[in-house]
Amino acid sequence: MTTTPVATTARPFSASELEALRADFPILMQEVNGHPLVYLDSGATSQKPLAVLDAERDYYLHQNAAVHRGAHTLAAEATEMFEEARASVARFVGADDDEIVWTSNATEAINLIAYAISNATAGRGGEAARRFALAPGDEIVVTEMEHHANLLPWQELAARTGAVLRFIPLAGDGTLRLDLLPDLIGERTRIVAFTHVSNVLGIINPVAELVEAAHRAGALVVLDACQSAPHLALDLHASGVDFAVFSGHKMLAPTGIGVLYGRRELLNALPPFLTGGSMITTVTMEGAEYLPAPQRFEAGTQRVSQAIALGAAVDYLSAAGVDRIAAHEERLGQRLVEGLSAIDSVTVLGPGPGRERVGLASFDVAGVHSHDIGQFLDDRGIAIRVGHHCAQPLHRRFGVTSSTRASTYLYTTDSEVDQLLEGVSDAIAFFGAHA
Ligand code: PLP
């Protein structure tokens, strides 16, 4: 699996290429608080290019019909576009079309897996689903750096089934304690769920090692690819993960569309989570037979325009070159952590410069609350994220309750990173003088 942008030989974007690319994102041209917008919050949600906005609008202008149902032309066209989008996303992440399930977002995708496993534990899904059933004392392993979306669904699944949640702690430098894997992943381990790229630290976890340890123990691997799918080239088949999730809105698509990837044979053995229309072969008053994946997990009227827009988004990313995006962001990420590390009273959470990362870093400023930094920067049109970034245990591990996070994307410039660094220095001087 390609996880190391450092190793990529791809060329970052030239200044003129970047300028041309930015012209596709009209929002980047606007002013905020009297300053040109400097958008450094793409880790929360990305901006959208015209190609994506147009794809969604065109669909409403010309097709707009429920998919997989109607006998009319618009319904047939909408269905074709909906399925073409699925094929684009499948190609983009190295999966087959029927292994891509549409969800509202990554959070829903993880909950879908957890509730489907609950249903299997309750005896639903027959013989095929028995392999997913959890017994009291079975173990679910996560890491200490998970987003709450990849922690709470497992806490709840453990509470429903009597399984035990264990976690891989962090070493002093903020990387995972891989030396503890032999103790943490063993014969009781049934699920290993971890983030590919930390939404707080920006570092890339070693997927291959974790997959190997999980599979040696016979456990299923769930990869949270929310912060990797937008920024790195993924090959899910090659990675060996069993399930993976990501959200469209972080990768140029609108909100309301996410993806659950599952290996075909697993998806077809897993009982459904939501049930209702459009996911069945036959229904009687007593019961129902369910369609194979992906339809068995897509109950109800689907998010057609959002899926089509996500298809347009991955086509846009592919045309820009995912390896080139990774190279661009690796450079920006190093510039960001080098600059932050050089500012007195700033502590970068996790590994500093030199460690492979995406263009994202979080930091603490001694004596200044992250909300004050955020407000100060916002007055200059610089948008960043403050708070715990849905990762309270990780912040607790670093002895802080909140941090300031800057995150880049393919449209971010060196100058924007430099404006952030200058803004942070000025904020420290301002609040220091007013302390
Ligand atoms: N996992 C990670 C690593 C994230 O960064 C996020 C979003 O910030 C999520 C999961 C949840 O994504 P969503 O809120 O789109 O479901």
UniProtKB/TrEMBL annotation:
<dbReference type="GO" id="GO:0030170">
    <property type="term" value="F:pyridoxal phosphate binding"/>
</dbReference>
<keyword id="KW-0808">Transferase</keyword>
<dbReference type="GO" id="GO:0006534">
    <property type="term" value="P:cysteine metabolic process"/>
</dbReference>
<dbReference type="InterPro" id="IPR015424">
    <property type="entry name" value="PyrdxlP-dep_Trfase"/>
</dbReference>
<protein>
    <recommendedName>
        <fullName>Cysteine desulfurase</fullName>
        <ecNumber>2.8.1.7</ecNumber>
    </recommendedName>
</protein>
<feature type="domain" description="Aminotransferase class V">
    <location>
        <begin position="38"/>
        <end position="420"/>
    </location>
</feature>
<keyword id="KW-0663">Pyridoxal phosphate</keyword>
<dbReference type="InterPro" id="IPR015422">
    <property type="entry name" value="PyrdxlP-dep_Trfase_small"/>
</dbReference>
<dbReference type="InterPro" id="IPR015421">
    <property type="entry name" value="PyrdxlP-dep_Trfase_major"/>
</dbReference>
<comment type="similarity">
    <text>Belongs to the class-V pyridoxal-phosphate-dependent aminotransferase family. Csd subfamily.</text>
</comment>
<dbReference type="GO" id="GO:0031071">
    <property type="term" value="F:cysteine desulfurase activity"/>
</dbReference>
<dbReference type="Pfam" id="PF00266">
    <property type="entry name" value="Aminotran_5"/>
</dbReference>
<dbReference type="InterPro" id="IPR000192">
    <property type="entry name" value="Aminotrans_V_dom"/>
</dbReference>
<dbReference type="InterPro" id="IPR020578">
    <property type="entry name" value="Aminotrans_V_PyrdxlP_BS"/>
</dbReference>
<comment type="function">
    <text>Catalyzes the removal of elemental sulfur and selenium atoms from L-cysteine, L-cystine, L-selenocysteine, and L-selenocystine to produce L-alanine.</text>
</comment>
<dbReference type="InterPro" id="IPR010970">
    <property type="entry name" value="Cys_dSase_SufS"/>
</dbReference>
